[in-house]
Amino acid sequence: MQTEARVGVVVEGGGQRALHTGHGGVAVAQSLPQPQRKSLQQQHQSQIGTVSQLLAGGVAGALAKTCTAPLARLTILFQIQGMHSDAATMRKASIWREASRIAGEEGFRAFWKGNLVTIAHRLPYSSVNFYAYEQYKRILQTVPGLKNSRDNMSTDICVHFVGGGLAGITAATATYPLDLVRTRLAAQTNVLYYRGIWHALQTITRDEGIFGLYKGLGATLLGVGPSIAISFTVYETLRSYWQSQRPDDSTVLLSLACGSLSGIASSTATFPLDLVRRRKQLEGAGGRARVYTTGLFGTFKHIFRTEGLRGLYRGILPEYYKVVPGVGICFMTYETLKMLLADVSATI
Question: What is the pTM of this model?
Answer without folding.
Answer: 0.68
